[in-house]
Design a protein that fits this description.
- This protein folds into 2 domains: 95 residues, no CATH class; 138 residues.
- With 243 residues, the chain is an all-alpha fold.
- The protein is flat and about 85 Å long.
- The protein contains 8 helices and no strands.
């Protein structure tokens, strides 16, 4: 009875901490980005419906002009039915849950960051509180990383390291953790480290690596700006203009 009561208290505390975590800035920003991605998908689906209806309407008008007797009432009803059918097919066509799985290795840099951001958001609730804190810190790095990686070739060494972390190493760490049964996660290994602690350590290391990559890329941009500014100053500076 004491153990059961203790477990209930822990579960209640974990629910409270999860609600508090959801109010945190990093988690709130991750949720906002996920909503933006979902809204973008809905807009694409609406655009596809509009294009389909437009094509059917144009085809109906052309047929009405070409045929000597026009398309008639039955032709008009057939066109309307076809448009309704196509719209219904597009509306109820299942969409691939992009954020449910880890990003694939063939995605462009920017899309990979977005997919990884969505993956973290979807998996966050299943992780313990210390790991959720690391996920939030990791999510906070991603907007800057996306901005820099979008301008970098996929074969750049920094980009390659970031891509491996986002598509293989960090998702593999989280997926392997989720595969461990709950009653085994507090067991300690030969180094006296639990499964939960291994997860937190791995997430922290991955976050530090991505932050370092972001910093390296940003410093390269700053150095390029400084070089360009010095060149313009030396080439078109005040002394040359006066001469």
């Amino acid at each position: 009875m004491t153990t059961e009561r203790f477990n209930q208290v822990i579960e209640r505390a974990d629910r409270v901490m999860r609600r508090l975590d959801d109010r945190d800035g990093a988690a709130r920003e991750a949720a906002r980005r996920e909503r933006q991605r979902l809204n973008a998908g809905l807009k694409r689906r609406a655009a596809q419906m509009a294009v389909a209806v437009g094509v059917i309407s144009i085809a109906t008008i052309i047929l009405g002009l070409i045929l000597p007797t026009g398309i008639g009432m039955f032709g008009f009803l057939a066109a309307v039915g076809l448009a309704i059918g196509v719209v219904g097919l597009l509306a109820f066509m299942p969409t691939r849950p992009q954020g449910a799985a880890a990003p694939t290795t063939d995605l462009p840099n920017g899309q990979m960051v977005q997919r990884f951001d969505s993956y973290l958001y979807r998996q966050r609730a299943a992780l313990p509180a210390p790991a959720r804190a690391e996920v939030d810190a990791l999510s906070a790095v991603l907007p800057s990383l996306k901005q820099t990686l979008e301008r970098v070739d996929a074969l750049d060494p920094n980009a390659q390291d970031a891509r491996r972390l986002m598509s293989l190493h960090l998702p593999g760490l989280i997926d392997r953790y989720l595969n461990v049964p709950g009653n085994y996660r507090n067991q300690r290994d030969g180094e006296d480290v639990s499964v939960d602690e291994r997860l937190v350590e791995g997430l922290a290391a991955g976050r530090a690596a991505l932050a370092e990559i972001t910093d390296n890329l940003a410093r390269s941009d700053v150095a390029a700006l400084e070089t360009q500014g010095r060149f313009i100053k030396s080439r078109y500076g005040e002394e040359r203009i006066d001469q």
